[in-house]
Design brief:
The longest helix is centred in the middle third of the chain and has 15 residues. Strands 1-2-5-11-6 form a five-stranded antiparallel beta sheet. Strands 9-8-7-10 form a four-stranded mixed beta sheet. The protein has a two-stranded antiparallel sheet with strand order 3-4. The mean pLDDT is 93. It is built from five helices and eleven strands; from the N terminus they run αβββββααβααβββββ. 19% of the residues lie in helices and 17% in strands. The chain is an alpha+beta fold. The protein is globular and about 55 Å long.
Length: 275
């Protein structure tokens, strides 16, 4: 069955459109969400995938037992600003902040939790961070290649550091011209191609927090996608790569540990809404 039909069926079973927005109790619409159907997928990467790292191994079959909705885009600065104004959350003036449709950055895990609690209260629905398995499953959208675009990407499709492209690195080319100009920051969300489920910016732009604490590999990973008991509670798994990092960091299997209090201009998040 086609990936898109699975999505339509899951949305119908949950009595929501495939892409929807909840309403705020105070007026207006919450971030756009995309329904992801249940299923199984191969999580992680094999050693022969270019860019593979030890923490992505072993590749293993993982089951996503229930449908869920995930943000069509990472949370944007304008969406986070709604929370800030409603709660008087303190915006530190010494940090760099985005505006408009750029992804929100310089957000700690505690700030993410505050936003999720506010969003859940405003909509009457349960919002949370995606698990690492949910994030990778949603990013792959039925694919097994390094990127949902295939075995290679250009900076026209993914916002990564163009001085470190994928295919040229794989072929060990010593000299090449970057196909795009380097950027000193993230780009506006949604301007690059979506995957088969309609999700934007899963590869590149900003790293995204998951709810999983860090593990050094998938060796003892639970096959239902739930968090491992051997995880380090002070560090979290982030996924997706960023504008600052090489293309290999934007692969579906790539993962990076970030400290719970870490702030960065290439680190943001997207949300899950339970169905």
């Amino acid at each position: 069955m086609a990936i898109s039909q699975l999505q339509i069926d899951a949305a119908r079973a949950a009595n929501v459109p495939s892409h929807f927005r909840d309403s705020y109790q105070s007026g207006g619409l919450a971030p756009e969400m995309t329904v992801i159907p249940p299923g199984r997928f191969e999580m992680g990467s094999e050693p022969d995938e270019y860019g593979h790292r030890r923490e992505e191994y072993p590749r293993h079959l993982t089951t996503i037992p229930c449908a869920f909705a995930i943000g069509t885009y990472p949370i944007t600065a304008v969406e986070f600003e709604r929370f800030r104004q409603a709660t008087e959350w303190f915006l530190r003036p010494e940090l760099i902040w985005h505006t408009g449709r750029l992804p929100v950055i310089n957000i700690r895990m505690e700030d993410v939790r505050l936003y999720l609690a506010w969003l859940s209260a405003e909509t009457g629905q349960r919002y949370r961070l995606p698990t690492e398995a949910e994030w990778e499953y949603a990013a792959r959208a039925g694919t097994t290649t390094p990127f949902y675009h295939g075995d290679d990407v250009s900076c026209r499709e993914v916002h990564f550091n163009p001085f470190f492209p994928y295919k040229e690195g794989q072929e060990k080319r010593r000299w090449y011209m970057p196909r795009c100009f380097p950027s000193p920051k993230a780009s506006e969300t949604g301007i690059r191609t979506a995957n088969a489920w309609g999700l934007h910016d899963m590869h590149g732009n900003v790293w995204e927090f998951t709810s999983n604490h860090w593990t050094s590999s998938h060796l003892y990973a639970n096959r239902d996608g739930s968090a491992s008991a051997s995880a380090d509670p002070h560090w979290y798994v982030t996924k997706g790569g960023s504008w600052f990092d090489p293309a290999v960091s934007a692969r579906s299997a790539a993962r990076k540990k970030r400290y719970l209090d870490e702030l960065d201009t290439n680190l943001g998040f997207r949300v899950v809404r339970e169905l």
